[in-house]
Amino acid sequence: METQSTWQTVAILIARLIFAAMFAMAVAFKFMDMGATAGYIAAAGFPFPLFLAWCAAILETLLVIAFLTGAFMTPLALIGAVYVVFLGFAFHGPSQWVGNQAEFGAFMSHFPFAAGLLYAAAHGPGTVLALRQGWPGMA
User: Fold this and answer.
1) What is the structure's pLDDT at 85?
2) Each residue's pLDDT tens digit, 24-81
3) pTM, full prediction
4) What is the 3-state secondary structure (H, E, C) of the chain?
5) What residues contact residue 66 under an 8 Å CB cut-off, 6+ apart?
6) What is the pLDDT of residues 72-89, one digit of tens each?
7) What phi-psi label fits residue 72: left (phi over 0), alpha (psi between -120 and 50 degrees) or beta?
8) Do the Cβ atoms of 66 and 74 come closer than 8 Å?
């Protein structure tokens, strides 16, 4: 069992709470108006927008649970990193930059988020308040 200093434990718990809060806000907006989310997905040209909106809401709910509990955090954080990069390209990618330069900023904001998720996947949920379920050897 690894040992962590108090500041490391606190930092990991705060980081997990921040990730959980970010995904909780995203999923809350989806549940408040799944039709609007489906419309946004359809506007980007994807088929089956309502189905994809529900898939996104379910994934984001699982990410919230993983970050709050530590259970399956590594595999879900990896999936979350891929998901966040996909969202950046799908909804804020280069085709959007010509009409609205702010889209470039939205696009770029996905990469530090993905980097944080990869870091969380690599280091796991820490030793405190973590169920540590998941792939063998990693939570």
Assistant:
1) 97
2) 999 999 999 999 999 999 999 999 999 999 999 999 999 999 999 999 999 999 999 9
3) 0.88
4) CCCCCHHHHHHHHHHHHHHHHHHHHHHHHHHHCHHHHHHHHHHCCCCCHHHHHHHHHHHHHHHHHHHHHCCCHHHHHHHHHHHHHHHHHHHHCHHHHCCCCHHHHHHHHHHHHHHHHHHHHHHCCCCCCCCCCCCCCCC
5) 72, 73, 76, 77
6) 999 999 999 999 999 999
7) left
8) no
Token duo for residue 71:
């259970």
Write phi, then psi, for 133 (nearest 5 degrees).
Answer: -95, 150
Per the structure block, which two tokens stand in for 66?
A: 């993983």
State how far the Cα of 120 lies from the Cα of 100, in Å rounded to an integer: 32
Kindly tell me if the per-residue pLDDT of 127 is higher than 90.
no
- Side-chain-side CA neighbours of residue 106 (13 Å): 16
Which residue has tokens 């969380």?
120
Band (98; pLDDT cuts 50, 70, 90)? confident
Within a 10 A sphere around the Cβ of 33, how many other Cβ atoms?
Answer: 12
